[in-house]
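chain below, 109 aa
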Amino acid sequence: EEETQIRLAFLSHCPKEPPQGRGAWMHVYLGEEEEKIGGGYVSRRFDGDDILDDVLNWLGGCYGTELLEKLKSREWCLCDLNRYPILPLDLEKHRKKTLQYLGLFPSGK
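prediction:
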């Protein structure tokens, strides 16, 4: 019950999802290619002027505080799979940056 309320609070801080045909898809996979976590895939559309904090609030709404705590402690990280070499995003440094600035728009994976 408490975790449900926490997740709803995270989602209340998310921007509305752009309508069909607008925005770009953000795909999040939990686990490395060979170690995918069951149920560890979510996707939704974001606009280029949405910020990384919006994505983190969405992930908090999807997976709860455990995921965000692991990201904050750097036990886990967010990486842009469209770039080579794949590097983790610095969440503290970039949390107020737009997805377009970070190169996650028009496609984030």
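The helical segments are 2-12, 52-63, 65-72, 91-94. The first strand starts at residue 24 and ends at 29.
thats it, cya
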